[in-house]
Amino acid sequence: MSDFDVRFFAQVFVTLLVIMDPLGNVPIFLSLTQGYPPARRRRLAWQSVLVAGGVIAVFALVGKQILEYLGITVPALQASGGLLLLLVALGLLLGWSQSQERVDEVNVALVPLGTPLIAGPGAIAATIVFVREAHGAKDALAIVAALAAVLALLYLSLRFSLELRRVLRDGGIHLLTRVFGLLLAAIAVQLIANGAIGFARAAG
Questions:
Q1: Domain boundary assignment for the chain
Q2: Are the C-beta atoms of 113 and 48 separated by less than 8 Å?
Q3: Model-wide pTM > 0.90
Q4: Is the peptide bond before 116 cis (omega within 30 degrees of 0)?
Q5: Could you write out the DSSP letters of every residue in 40-78?
């Protein structure tokens, strides 16, 4: 496994998994696609995941150049990204509701499913942080593999949303969402701590 960093892959995978929250998006997806035929619901599932992957990929590719142009350092990005992820984590832990309004004028796979529900600020910020921390092809491959794995899980959760809701019920989905929120809060605090350490080293 010399060409693949398993540890970095696991870090990216767990972070993106808890941010993008496949199970937590199931009730929202069902609400937005209520009354749709199964074929259309399946199409919206893969379209929304494709849109989310495209949005994150764009920021992964050009996010570094944008930050350099703006003069934003890695510690600043880590601290701000950590604060943003902490807000997302609090939303998961406290059950802050997200907008579930039915939008018939636009394809819900684009808005709000693809972005901002799946590819939201938290996922984008985390991806940019990981890209900035990556060293060489091994880490780049780990990021791509982790993102692909999370997107695959997202597609499966949306594709089989009705079945998942019947098995887990609302209580099970809420419980797992709270667990994801706790994990994400720990990741966010670690990012903030890394940013503070970076600032201290730069000042010293």
A1: 6-203
A2: yes
A3: no
A4: yes
A5: HHHHHHHHHHHHHHHHHHHHHHHHHHHHHHHT--HHHHH
